[in-house]
User: Which sequence fits this backbone?
């Protein structure tokens, strides 16, 4: 993954390109001066925008054009070609735009210019005066950003029990933990962002209760904060195992920046680590600790890593990949106790461990909603507009269970991009936009230099149709039920992943 600006390559787009060189939906990467620019055609119109995704620097020319939007191949951000606006997370910063000029069958890219985003919230309706957001994570941050982007000028109070401002949480188990991401990549924005946009971010402020009748939230120290609209985005917390030794100082879970820092500090004095859990976070932690030259043992009850989500074929492949990097698996196994320098297995065997990381899943933080009498259904139940059962109270992110139009069922997922996109939709709906949340779920996971992309949602399937070669890291796996692909996982096929997402969106649009 790279945050670098790409070095401009390809033709000088200011010198002009033959119009018929680009068909509808095609793109050409080039440059204008020192700027990397992509020229895209949508129907009969040509657009020129920055060639590098503002999320992690993905090469947009390797993505796809859909109508007047361009989509990033890496994590599916979507930008407006007309205004550069980051329409869909995970990118939140717009692309630069250039004017284009057509003459004598050629299109030339001219001046760079800033363009205003098109306001999506309705005008003319009475705006709420006070919006309160409980949660300073993916959904909460994306909501606050979207409110101000849409010229909302009432008060925004964002309350987070975390000591750190909103951070790039997925990085905490990947490059940051491996020691390859600098500190400045981690906050989603620096402090000036909140001050400049008049977002009242209050850290280490835990909300203890909601009073929907009085339209107030109550902090742990008893003070009350009134709202006209409330967004609950309290996320999830790591499951702790009921094991002797779980509270020892070298035993960690991973959710916050403080957790990641504590693991890094412990890693400095660690020769051998035990990771409990062989799903996404556990294995990303294993990979990051291997990057620090620590001997890593993974203990998990599963037969194969990640099998429940990705199936046996990818599970076996992921296992091989980690073994090639020196990870030692103890599958179909659990721990019976943790001691100061070792982990005990039920068989009586022991594993030496200077560091233990427990990554065995998370539990949505729904207590606030539950205590306030909101409808709960294995999460906080919301409708297609992300409204909870309480008037003017919305929920988004890991806690929300919403009616997913693609599967036709209510689902709750724990994905970064979904949380951000829900935060964005909830923000617009708090301003009266009445937009359905219909985004196809997407997540990515990174192991060493290998990302896996996944679109859709499949809790079970009849079969998995594999195209390509998993071992060569060039494959697409379709998880099908009744002949229909519920989800698509891919390695090395970013464009196919985008096209699969688009096909699912079109399915939804056509009922
Ligand atoms: C290490 C790690 C790596 C991950 N990697 C990936 C990945 O690669 N791809 C992917 O798709 N997903 C990944 N995820 C999952 C992703 O980060 C979550 O799905 C996402 O953060 C959920 O966003 P959220 O806003 O619902 O919750 P969070 O981001 O967890 O934010 C919740 C916020 O609510 C606050 N809060 C909770 N209770 C209260 C309260 N009572 N009062 C005040 N504040 C409160 C918390 O302090 C926090 O600020 C990863 C998660 C972790 C931990
Ligand atoms: S790099 Fe473009 S979405 Fe992540």
Assistant:
């Amino acid at each position: 993954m790279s945050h670098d600006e790409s070095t401009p390559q390809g033709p000088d787009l200011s010198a002009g390109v033959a119009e018929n060189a680009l068909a509808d939906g095609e793109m050409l990467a080039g440059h204008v001066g020192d700027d990397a620019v992509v020229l895209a055609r949508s129907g009969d119109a040509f657009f020129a925008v920055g060639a590098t995704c503002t999320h992690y620097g993905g090469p947009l020319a390797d993505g796809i054009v859909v109508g007047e939007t361009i989509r990033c191949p890496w994590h599916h951000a979507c930008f407006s070609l007309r205004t550069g606006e980051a329409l869909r997370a995970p990118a939140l910063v717009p692309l630069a735009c250039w004017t284009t000029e057509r003459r004598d069958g050629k299109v030339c890219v001219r001046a760079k210019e800033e363009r205003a985003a098109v306001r999506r919230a309705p005008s003319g309706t009475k705006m709420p005066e006070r919006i309160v957001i409980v949660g300073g994570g993916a959904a909460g941050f994306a909501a606050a950003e979207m409110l101000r982007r849409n010229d909302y000028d009432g008060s925004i109070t964002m309350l987070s029990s975390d000591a750190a401002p909103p951070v790039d949480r997925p990085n905490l188990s990947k490059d940051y933990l491996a020691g390859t991401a600098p500190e400045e990549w981690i906050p989603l924005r620096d402090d000036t962002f909140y001050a400049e946009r008049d977002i009242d971010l209050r850290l280490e402020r835990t909300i203890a209760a909601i009073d929907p009748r009085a339209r107030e939230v109550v902090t742990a120290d008893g003070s009350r904060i009134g709202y006209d609209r409330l967004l609950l985005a309290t996320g999830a917390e790591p499951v702790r195992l009921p094991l002797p030794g779980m509270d020892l100082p070298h035993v960690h879970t991973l959710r916050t920046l403080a957790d990641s820092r504590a693991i890094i500090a412990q890693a400095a004095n660690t020769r051998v680590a035990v990771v409990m859990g062989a799903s996404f976070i556990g294995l990303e932690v294993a990979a990051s600790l291997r990057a620090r030259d620590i001997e890593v043992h993974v203990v998990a009850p599963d037969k194969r890593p990640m099998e429940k989500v990705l199936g046996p074929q990818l599970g076996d492949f992921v296992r091989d990949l980690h073994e090639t990097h020196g990870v030692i698996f103890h599958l179909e196994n659990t721990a019976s106790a943790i001691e100061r320098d070792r982990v005990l297995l039920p068989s009586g065997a022991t594993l030496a461990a200077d560091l233990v990381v427990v990554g065995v899943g998370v539990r949505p933080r729904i207590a606030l909603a539950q205590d306030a009498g909101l409808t709960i259904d294995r999460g906080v139940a919301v409708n297609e507009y992300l409204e909870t059962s309480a008037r003017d109270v919305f929920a988004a992110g890991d806690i929300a269970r919403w009616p997913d139009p693609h599967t036709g069922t209510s689902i709750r997922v724990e994905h970064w991009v979904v949380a951000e996109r829900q935060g964005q939709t909830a923000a617009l709906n708090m301003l009266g936009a009445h937009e359905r949340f219909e985004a196809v779920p997407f997540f990515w996971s990174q192991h060493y230099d290998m990302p896996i992309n996944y679109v859709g949602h499949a809790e079970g399937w009849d079969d998995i149709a594999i195209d390509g070669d998993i071992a060569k890291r060039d494959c697409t796996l379709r998880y099908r039920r009744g002949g229909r692909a519920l989800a698509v996982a891919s390695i090395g096929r970013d464009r196919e992943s985008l096209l699969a997402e688009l096909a699912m969106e079109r399915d939804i649009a056509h009922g």
Residues 53, 55-58, 72, 74-75, 77, 90-91 surround FE2/S2 (inorganic) cluster (ligand 2) (CB under 6 Å).
